């Protein structure tokens, strides 16, 4: 088994600060200060997010579950692993090309829109000088970000879900040591 | 020690946890921590809620909180865990390391002899001393015999 954060309290607080900031400024990649060791297929940055956000009160779904990753998560976070995407509070997508449709995840209900899933998607890379433009709360004018390795149908499914607001799904994209957040309130601008 | 491996492990973990930190440190002097071990969970101190039942059968109630320090360490392929009462981080580290070594069939006899046995004797001596002290203060109520 592998170790997690060297100092669980302060290290997860430092990462939590960055995740908050990433959600507050959607689609602007930020550097995660601490990357813990992680078993395959979980990337270190995704593990940093999981260790920061998951505990005994959350349910996690792994797209590519294996015994080592499951044991590692259970030991270090005490989290519950679930088999169905719909039961997950956090879902780790390690291979976006074959990810389930967004409708498969919980998007909350009208009384409790917060009872929705947050996805952690491991992508190939970010480029801030290309790709689609986004707007919404937390973005002055517009933000541009191209995400490598994300299937086109993700954007179609997300656009279809936009009508459900305040219901929806929040996404953290991670690549190498960077994280970019896509909360449900962010809209894609038609070019 | 019992032949069942799980019970045996529970017994030595209990013995390591109940040892006085100084006793454990003295017993473990011959087993220095190598530099290349992995601390899966460095010692962390927290609170556990102790629960009890009146007479062992009544409804559960919260007795109070207790300070516990836990620690997990990997030595080679073996993982040692420890939960010890109090906030003594070194105690938790040594107990976890001893638990990892004790799972190794080759190391176990040497550790049983040089660590577990002294700890067991010390624990027994402490229990007997406490029991003697309590017995010395026993009061016989000769005067309140009733009836007859």
From TrEMBL, chain A:
Pfam families: PhnH. GO terms for biological process: organic phosphonate metabolic process. GO terms for molecular function: lyase activity. Keywords: Lyase. InterPro entries: PhnH-like_sp (IPR038058), Phosphonate_metab_PhnH (IPR008772). It comes from the Bacteria. The keyword Lyase applies. This is Phosphonate C-P lyase system protein PhnH. It comes from Dyella tabacisoli.
Automatic annotation (TrEMBL), chain B:
It holds the Pfam family PhnG. The gene is phnG. This is Phosphonate C-P lyase system protein PhnG. GO terms for molecular function: lyase activity. NCBIfam families: PhnG_redo. Transmembrane segments: none annotated. Keywords: Lyase. The keyword Transport does not apply. GO terms for biological process: organic phosphonate metabolic process; organic phosphonate transport.
């Amino acid at each position: 088994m592998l170790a997690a954060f060297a100092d669980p309290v302060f290290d997860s607080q430092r990462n939590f600060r960055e995740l908050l900031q990433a959600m507050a400024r959607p689609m602007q990649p930020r550097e995660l200060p601490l990357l813990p060791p992680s078993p395959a297929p979980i990337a270190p940055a995704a593990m940093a997010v999981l260790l920061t956000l998951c505990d005994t009160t959350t349910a996690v779904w792994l797209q590519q579950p294996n015994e080592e990753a499951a044991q590692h998560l259970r030991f270090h976070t005490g989290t519950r692993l679930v088999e169905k995407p719909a039961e997950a509070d956090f879902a780790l997508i390690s291979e976006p090309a074959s990810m389930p449709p967004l409708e498969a995840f919980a998007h909350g209900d009208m009384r409790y829109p917060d009872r929705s899933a947050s996805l952690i998607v491991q992508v190939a890379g970010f480029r801030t000088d290309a790709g689609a433009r986004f707007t919404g709360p937390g973005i002055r004018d517009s933000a541009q970000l191209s995400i490598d390795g994300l299937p086109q149908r993700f954007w179609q499914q997300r656009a279809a879900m936009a009508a459900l607001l305040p219901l929806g799904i929040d996404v953290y994209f991670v690549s190498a040591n960077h994280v970019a957040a896509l909360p449900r309130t962010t809209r894609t601008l038609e070019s | 020690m019992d032949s069942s491996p799980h019970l045996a492990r529970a017994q030595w973990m209990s013995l390591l946890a109940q040892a006085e930190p100084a006793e454990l440190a003295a017993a473990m002097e011959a087993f220095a921590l190598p530099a290349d071990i992995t601390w899966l969970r460095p010692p962390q101190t927290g609170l556990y809620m102790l629960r009890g039942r009146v007479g062992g059968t009544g409804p559960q109630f919260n007795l109070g909180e207790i300070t516990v320090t836990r620690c997990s360490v990997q030595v080679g392929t073996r993982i040692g865990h420890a939960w010890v009462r109090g906030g003594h981080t070194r105690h938790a580290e040594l107990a976890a390391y001893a638990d990892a070594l004790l799972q190794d069939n080759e190391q176990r006899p040497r550790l049983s002899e040089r660590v577990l046995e002294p700890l067991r004797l010390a624990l027994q001596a402490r229990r007997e001393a406490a029991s003697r002290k309590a017995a010395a203060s026993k009061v016989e109520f000769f005067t309140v015999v009733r009836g007859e």
